[in-house]
Amino acid sequence: MTAPACGPRRALRVEAPAKLNLGLRITGIRQAGAQRGYHELASVFVPIDYADEVEISLAEGGPGLAPVELRVAGDVPGVPADASNLAARAAAGFLEAAGSPARACLVLHKRVAAGAGLGGGSSDAGAVLRGLARLLPGAVARDTLEDLAVALGADVPFFLDPRPAWVTGIGERRAPLPEIGPLFVVLAHPGVPLATAAVFRAFDEAHARPGSALTRPDPPSTMPALSGLPGRRAGGDPRVLASQLDTLLENDLEPAALRLCPAIGGLREALRRAGALGIGLSGSGPTMFGVFADAAAARKAADGMELASPAWCRVASRWIARGEAE
User: Fold this and answer.
1) Domains recognised in the chain with CATH numbers
2) In terms of pTM, does the model score above 0.85?
């Protein structure tokens, strides 16, 4: 697809980091409102240094001109380059809410795997909303921006301000966790995508059986436990940390994801053999991740893991905002 012919008058570049779920518990089903039927959750979201980038330009609109033009750059399968892309939908929604006659031109530099449980598409949408809010300051109220994000998807609100956070509701309620220290993780992916909707359907089917409950009573809060993780890691017994992480990183969706993608089980075992202190599934999968004591241990593990193609692994750490280039 050719580059958007916007003739931009204003432009910026925005980073769109992937995220990990440090534990994920399904706590209920929303019973009313526009999100009726959505699953409610409790999770710690952590952005990592595996990121897309979006170039956003604004130009004059006019008759016969599309309000949003999108070009996708990068070799990531399964990413639409049309109006169905979440980034394009975010731009269209923002301009409509702002009542702006401008049109948006987006160049999406795609690196984060699609359908990986890492929030790549949601992060792209959040980056577009953040970028347009900077290009058109005051054009859309913060509450309206939040509503736009929720309407686009449950993960999108987090990416309006991507920093470690305790996330509840369907994803719209967030409490920052600045006390979480650096995390050194190895991402392991089977090389095939897994549809979020399919995983939730499998989860619902499993919990519709007689005698089953939606989730265990009183799911443990991962927030206070993870907040103290850096100090325990620095001076604690790795075996103790490993036993704690196995509980903290529990993801209620993993059994459903495993049924749909059995390769997840092999990734868990490979990370365990590589010495991971704790292992979790991010989002609805299929990306597994292992937490390691330090960057050197994570790199050694990633270099030594033997995964059959098309599976892949990579080292990532907690993402720290570096500022968005104008």
Assistant:
1) 10-176 (3.30.230.10), 184-317 (3.30.70.890)
2) yes
